[in-house]
């Protein structure tokens, strides 16, 4: 096996590929209603300084929170940097396998995190969290495993003197959001980070926000640069949160495509398929080098997938495959059959 190589985001693998199963946003691109909105808002958004009032009110209303508990973000990754810089934790931990941007943000702020690596099937174990951890970051559902933790398991790691940060970037894909902590107002040190980038398929627009108790939210807002979120992102955020039902078609399609892809992949030799709750599927090619497989898929078939060995706790053979539906997924499965037979 070759070393896992640098931790390259899915967009690196997708550049120039004919079929993108590497970037984990909803299939089909931005919905028509959003395209129309952005065209309508373009002139005003570029002529005036951004005004966050409407988007803030919409987010608050969507989650049953007050406006002073909302912090708008230039994408969810912005939130991890704000949290690291503002809180400067002494003993932060990040629960893995998961998105590694919180680790980068904490390291950049001079407070590198200790990993808590869960064993397969990667269910959150509250007893695995060090007693002295003063900040804990956990994904739900988690990228790239797709694991959806019960709300009660996350609440079990909340403790006095500890801030718990829940990355809910993919919660929009979960029907009913039953395990979301976004509406929770009874915890003094709970931060929920959300992203509309994934469900709206607008990674270039950077649409995110976080929810926190008002004193902590105020500290985080004050840490941002001036006009931190652009006008088009604010318009998209306001429209999506005023009318969350608009997100349902993309979520329903993603879940159906994911389930169909997982069922098809189950017939590929030497490929383990892990269940998940987001719009992607984590697989493991036993005894194979996932990075080499990804390179071969891209070079020989024009198909981009995300090697996952760089996520702490995963192995060399792990790949994250975003479901695209129909012929695109059929070609991916056929190519994997050819390579793993």
Topology:
Layout: H1 10-14, E1 19-20, H2 32-47, H3 53-63, E2 70-73, H4 76-87, E3 92-96, H5 101-108, E4 114-117, E5 135-139, H6 151-155, E6 163-167, E7 190-195, H7 197-200, E8 208-211, H8 214-223, H9 231-242, H10 248-265, E9 271-274, E10 280-285, H11 290-301, E11 303-304, E12 306-307, E13 318-322, H12 326-340
Parallel strand pairs: 1-11, 3-4, 3-5, 5-6, 6-7
Antiparallel strand pairs: 2-8, 7-8, 9-10, 10-13, 12-13
Helix pairs in contact: 2-9, 3-9, 4-5, 10-12
Task: List segments where confidence is low: pLDDT < 50 over at least 5 consecutive residues.
Answer: none
Beta-strand segment tally: 13
The fourth-level CATH homologous superfamily of the largest domain is Type I PLP-dependent aspartate aminotransferase-like (Major domain)
User: CATH class of the largest domain, anyone?
Assistant: Alpha Beta
Distance between the termini: 19 Å
SSE class = alpha/beta
**Averaged pLDDT:** 95
Count of domains:
2
Rg for CA atoms = 20 Å
Assign the CATH topology of the largest domain.
Aspartate Aminotransferase, domain 2
Shape by Cα distribution:
globular
CATH architectural name of the largest domain: 3-Layer(aba) Sandwich
* Strand order, largest beta sheet: 2-8-7-6-5-3-4
Question: How is this structure best described in words?
Answer:
The protein is an alpha/beta fold. It folds into 2 domains: 108 residues, Aspartate Aminotransferase, domain 1 (Alpha-Beta Complex); 211 residues, Type I PLP-dependent aspartate aminotransferase-like (Major domain) (Aspartate Aminotransferase, domain 2). Helices cover 38% and strands 16% of the residues. It has a 7-stranded mixed sheet with strand order 2-8-7-6-5-3-4, sandwiched between helices. Helix 2 packs across helix 9. The protein starts with 9 loop residues before the first helix and ends with a helix. The model has no long low-confidence stretch (mean pLDDT 95).
């Amino acid at each position: 096996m070759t070393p896992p190589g640098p931790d390259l985001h899915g967009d690196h693998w997708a550049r120039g590929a004919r079929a993108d199963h590497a970037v984990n946003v909803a299939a089909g691109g931005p919905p028509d209603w959003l395209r129309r909105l952005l065209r309508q808002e373009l002139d005003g958004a570029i002529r005036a300084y951004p005004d966050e009032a409407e988007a803030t009110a919409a987010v608050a209303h969507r989650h049953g929170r007050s406006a002073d508990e909302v912090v708008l973000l230039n994408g969810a990754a912005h939130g991890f940097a704000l949290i690291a810089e503002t809180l400067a934790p002494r003993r932060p931990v990040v629960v893995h396998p998961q998105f590694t941007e919180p680790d980068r943000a904490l390291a950049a702020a001079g407070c590198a995190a200790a990993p808590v690596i869960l064993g397969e099937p990667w269910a959150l174990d509250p007893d695995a969290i060090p007693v002295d951890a003063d900040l804990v970051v956990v994904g739900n559902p988690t990228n790239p495993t797709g694991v959806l933790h019960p709300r009660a398991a996350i609440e079990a790691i909340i403790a006095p003197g500890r801030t718990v940060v829940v990355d809910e970037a993919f919660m929009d894909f979960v029907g009913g959001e039953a395990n979301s902590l976004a509406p929770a107002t009874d915890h003094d040190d709970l931060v929920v980070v959300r992203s509309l980038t994934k469900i709206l398929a607008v990674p270039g627009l950077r649409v995110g926000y976080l929810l926190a108790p008002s004193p902590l939210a105020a500290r985080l807002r004050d840490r941002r640069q001036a006009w931190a979120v652009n006008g088009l992102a604010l318009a998209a955020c306001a429209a999506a949160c005023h009318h969350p039902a608009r997100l349902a078609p993309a979520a329903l399609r993603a879940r159906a495509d994911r389930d169909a892809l997982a069922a098809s992949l189950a017939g590929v030799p030497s490929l383990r398929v892990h269940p998940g709750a987001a719009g992607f599927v984590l697989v493991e090619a036993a005894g194979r080098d996932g990075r080499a497989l990804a390179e071969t898929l891209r070079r020989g078939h024009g198909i981009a997938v995300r090697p996952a060995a760089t996520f702490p706790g995963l192995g060399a053979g792990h790949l994250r495959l975003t479901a695209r539906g129909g012929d695109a997924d059929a070609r991916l499965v056929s190519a994997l059959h050819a390579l793993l037979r």
